[in-house]
Amino acid sequence: MTDVVKLGGSLLENRDLRHAALEAVATAWSSGKRSIVVHGGGKRIDAMLAALDIPKKVQGGLRVTDAETLDVVVSILSGLVNKTLVAELRGRGIRAAGLSGADGDTLWAEFHEAIEGVDLGFVGRVVRCDPTLLAAVLGAGFLPLVASVALGREGTLLNVNADSAASALAGALGAKRLVFLTDVEGVKGADGAVIDRIDARAARTLLASPAVTGGMKPKLRAAVEALEAGVSEVVIAGPSMHRAALLEGKGGTHLVAA
């Protein structure tokens, strides 16, 4: 059964962490563990927007994406970040196929609702997945590497959250496991200690508490959504446990339905 792996954005910006994560992905693949890898690339987008003197706007934790910003998002995610990862995996002996969620009708999204009266522009919420292309790529012996860009109505492209995209794909594929490879060792509770195991109900309670902040909040929310979609287990693991998480499902925080 295929796993879905989400590469955390912070990993992509730290060369050593990125290479270690890719080594773990390559090792798991070479051992026969089949997976689909999903990625974003927010900091690379920020850097290009700054270079082009395009203001960055965020509302409710989401990037406000006008037409000009969308061009940058698609170019960076589907181009620079995606193909760099393809090349770095090939350097580790893995043949990867670089795709986006827009290819083969893989990810469909609807326009995200306004937040506090602010129109987010070309930002989407994933509503449907078609895993046909990914299954074909896997069947041909390639590792699918998917950038978090989706199709919208009437032929538009939409910027979607990579954690949510990974969760939706895992549910559509009937994946046994969704693994988030991050730069932190797992989900922390109110006492600051990493939680080894938690069920979906407790995770929802934790989401409503001040203990979960920053980038962990969308990951935990996506994890709960994956469990509700039928994924057996979600693992959120930091650098020291990337290999164990992919090979053995060990380390970090394990989330289960009940």
Description:
With 258 residues, this protein is α/β, with parallel strands linked by helices. The chain has a single domain (3-256), classed as Acetylglutamate kinase-like (Carbamate kinase). It contains 9 helices and 14 strands. Strand 3 and strand 4 (62-63) form a beta hairpin. It is globular and about 45 Å long. The model has no long low-confidence stretch (mean pLDDT 94).
Write the layout of secondary structure elements.
Layout: E1 3-7, H1 9-13, H2 15-30, E2 35-39, H3 42-51, E3 58-59, E4 62-63, H4 67-90, E5 96-100, E6 107-111, E7 124-129, H5 132-139, E8 143-147, E9 149-151, E10 157-159, H6 162-173, E11 177-181, E12 197-199, H7 200-207, H8 216-228, E13 233-237, H9 242-248, E14 253-256
Parallel strand pairs: 1-2, 1-11, 2-8, 5-8, 11-13, 12-14
Antiparallel strand pairs: 3-4, 6-7, 9-10, 13-14
Helix pairs in contact: 2-9, 3-4, 6-8, 7-8
Structure summarized in a few sentences:
The chain has helices spanning about 10-15, 15-30, 40-50, 65-90, 130-140, 160-175, 200-205, 215-230, 240-250, and strands at about 5, 35-40, 60, 60-65, 95-100, 105-110, 125-130, 145, 150, 155-160, 175-180, 195-200, 235, 255.
Please state the overall shape, judged from the principal axes of the Cα atoms: globular
Q: Return the average pLDDT rounded to an integer.
A: 94
Distance N to C terminus: 21 Å
Helix percentage range? 25-40%
Structural class: alpha/beta
Query: Which CATH class is shown?
Result: Alpha Beta
Radius of gyration: 17 Å
